């Protein structure tokens, strides 16, 4: 069973980081989820590192993934909301934020959430030289390792929804299982207000979805209780990306 090829429609922007995203012309390799593995599906040989946008659609779970930077007070509020709901989330941490807020990042990990690599400075990774994009991934990986003991399982490129072939290869070289894209864009970074965030996500989310969200926005924090309730009423648990993918 194949899962995870991101559609080309609705490419998102990471305004929190000030840049536009773009389409990648590269062919993307489908991802594979834990349900496929549990069902005995044989994983095809990987010819290149994977880009994964969602898990298998039979999963009764979703992964809420957060761009990891911004106001630590908002991040702590968000952590309290997800913990109170018994949800697990994944923070794709920007290395610079790890330098500034190691305690906040560590609190997510200590409470059972997952941290991934979202580059050191969140600049336009496709506009960089090969050496610079490698360094952006490697420097964030070093910080994650120092802080947590591992570099994490997932890499998410900066200022683009889709990882180029070069970036996927670099992430794989640095030990990442895959590049984590998403199939639901909450557009929370545009600060549309909590109801709009909740409505959009609940309209588009399905089993296996990976939802793109951002730390550092008060509307995101305010949306979470209703959003998590809505997921629950649809029979969808919020789990970490690794749990969703069976990593
Ligand atoms: Zn981002």
The succession of helices and strands, N to C, reads HEEHEHHEHEHEEHEHEH
Ligands (ions, cofactors included): zinc ion
- How many structural domains can be distinguished in the coordinates? 1
CATH fold category name? TIM Barrel
Helical region count?
A: 9
Mean pLDDT, all residues = 85
Show unreliable segments: 1-13, 15-48
- Could you give me the name of the CATH homologous superfamily? Glycoside hydrolase/deacetylase
* Biggest pleated-sheet summary: 6 strands, parallel
Please tell me the CATH architecture by its name.
Alpha-Beta Barrel
Structure characteristics:
alpha/beta; binds zinc ion; TIM Barrel; 247 residues; 38% helix; 3-stranded parallel beta sheet; 6-stranded parallel beta sheet
Q: What would you say this structure looks like, in words?
A:
By secondary structure, the chain is α/β, with parallel strands linked by helices. It has a single domain (55-245), classed as Glycoside hydrolase/deacetylase (TIM Barrel, Alpha-Beta Barrel), CATH 3.20.20. It is built from nine helices and nine strands. Strands 2, 3, 4, 7, 8 and 9 form a six-stranded parallel sheet that branches. Helix 5 packs parallel to helix 6 (165-173). It is globular and about 45 Å long. The two termini are 16 Å apart. Mean pLDDT is 85; it is low at 1-13 and 15-48. Residues 14, 17, 67, 118, 122, 158 line the site of zinc ion.
